[in-house]
Design goal:
The chain is mainly alpha-helical. The chain is built from 10 helices and no strands.
């Protein structure tokens, strides 16, 4: 446990340092320099340059901004939609709950990334379409979790007491049920961040996400794969950065789950 915590702290410090650099440093991610094409890491260019001579470090920071912003937007929308659908489905019950359950099962029958790729292919490339595609598959996990939790919570004594006192349904939901969902929903959101970042990178790798010249980790890995033998840093560096970000969110999710576990 101590080793995992220390490793998580190291990753967190690394990303806080990158965040500080990204906020304070003057970056030029789209500046082309023919003299620096495929240059390996050096004192002048910390992480080298790509096939157009653009600094890899600057493009990594720019790609981090894009990935984190898209992840925040997608997770927030998915959380709101999934929480609303799951809570209402379990609380109302009956035919409405059966319909919602079948819709959730249909979405879960397809691999999420394949469905996102299909939607992104239909909608076309672009950041807005990436948000739509990932949100369309991301709300399901929150809805399933919220529904399962509410099916148990709605039978608690304090909920039954509120119903016996004649409190309106919206008040019971907002004051007596939704607050009890905070812990599992927060943990689910932390894991969702990692999933969305992987999915966004995958879509950009396929050319369905962020479009050039805007930087994205997925497109950087795709472009660097053409020069893997002569300039492996173009693929290895963004791949390792993406791995570290996903690992950080997964470890943070584990720590949150352990901390918020009432048992």
């Amino acid at each position: 446990m101590r080793g995992r915590v220390n490793f998580t702290n190291v990753l967190l410090a690394f990303w806080l340092l990158l965040l500080l650099i990204g906020i304070t440093a003057e970056l030029h991610p789209d500046e082309v320099s023919l003299a620096h094409i495929l240059q390996p890491p050096s004192s002048e260019l910390w992480l080298g340059a790509d096939d157009l001579g653009r600094p890899v470090f600057d493009r990594l920071i720019a790609g981090a901004r894009v990935s984190l912003l898209l992840a925040v937007i997608v997770v927030m929308i998915s959380l709101f939609v999934g929480l609303s659908v799951g809570v209402l489905s379990a609380y109302i019950g009956g035919k409405f709950d059966n319909v919602i359950s079948h819709i959730i099962d249909i979405f879960l029958a397809f691999p999420g990334i394949l469905l996102a790729i299909a939607l992104a292919g239909i909608l076309g490339p672009g950041e807005l379409n990436v948000i739509i595609a990932l949100t369309a598959v991301g709300w399901v996990g929150f809805a399933r979790l919220a529904r399962a939790q509410v099916l148990s919570i709605r039978h608690y004594d304090h909920v039954s007491a509120a119903q016996a006192l004649g409190q309106p349904s919206y008040r019971i939901l907002l004051l007596h049920i939704v607050p009890l969902l905070a812990a599992p929903i927060i943990v689910e959101a932390s894991f969702a961040f990692a999933s969305v970042m992987i999915a966004e990178a995958g879509l950009s790798f396929l050319g369905l996400g962020v479009q050039p010249p805007q930087a994205s980790w997925g497109s950087m890995i795709r472009d660097g794969s053409r020069y893997l033998l002569v300039a492996p840093h173009l693929t290895l560096i963004p791949g390792l950065v993406l791995m570290s970000a996903v690992l950080l969110f997964n470890l943070a999710g584990d720590r949150l789950r352990d901390h918020l576990n009432v048992k």
